[in-house]
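Hi support team,

I'm opening this ticket because the web form for multi-chain structure prediction keeps timing out on my end. I have pasted the exact lines I submitted so you can reproduce it. The total is 255 residues across two entries, so I didn't expect it to be a heavy job. Is there a limit I'm missing, or should I split the entries? Thanks in advance, R.K.
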Amino acid sequence: MNNEKVMKLVEKMLAESDKIKSVSLSDSEFSNVTNEYYFTFPDNKYKWSISQIKDGSFYLFYYKDSDDDSSFLRVGDNLNDDFFDSNLKNLHELLKGKESGLEIVLQDILNN
Amino acid sequence: MTFLDFISLVSDIVEISIGVAALIITISQRDKISAAFSILFNYSFQTSISDFKSWIHKLQDSPVEEATNSKKARVALATIEGKIRGNKTLLSHYGSKVLKRITIMIVRLDNNEGVTETEKHSLCSELIESVSELEVDSYKNKI
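Hello R.K., no limit was hit. The queue was backed up. Here is the completed structure from your submission:
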């Protein structure tokens, strides 16, 4: 997988966050993952998820079949880049805001 | 009617008779045939589960904290992941969350990001306990 494209993909997700749809928080049962957000991008075309594990690192997954959660593929193998990690963290924060509804509240306040 | 036609007729009659006999046996002995298939499927399932459990035990016995010694653990994790993905019963039983947990563990071993023995034992215990549940369910279904 082309890591440069993966980095651009995450940048695009952040830049075009209005195209992030169907955000949901997983009922994560297993010990080393704290929050996992599922979402689609762009719009409802492709399914993704981002997981944060207890040591603070983030993992991005793509789903070949949007109806099958086990069809995941990890995106960004061996990408030990601080900028990428920071973007994943920002994306996770963004999804947190979207899922909780805080993003809409902030947008509403800032637009008025 | 030629001799060949006669032979052909006899052959057809014998063939139909065998077919009818097989059908009668299948219908009258369907419980026994079904039980035989059930035993066969169950044996196959138990063999898969035993193999799966043996890989969990291999993982349990493989150190993960020292990068140079973690190769065995990586192989065991990858095998367990493959076995879950390749077996519909295991896949629906464990689901994507356990698979993702294994994937993340493999990535962290590959990147020397420090998987602890505690994390590994926690995963092994979950896998073993969960597969035992599956075995109990399988026996219940048999009864």
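A quick check on our side: Chain B has five helices and no strands. Let us know if the file doesn't open in your viewer.
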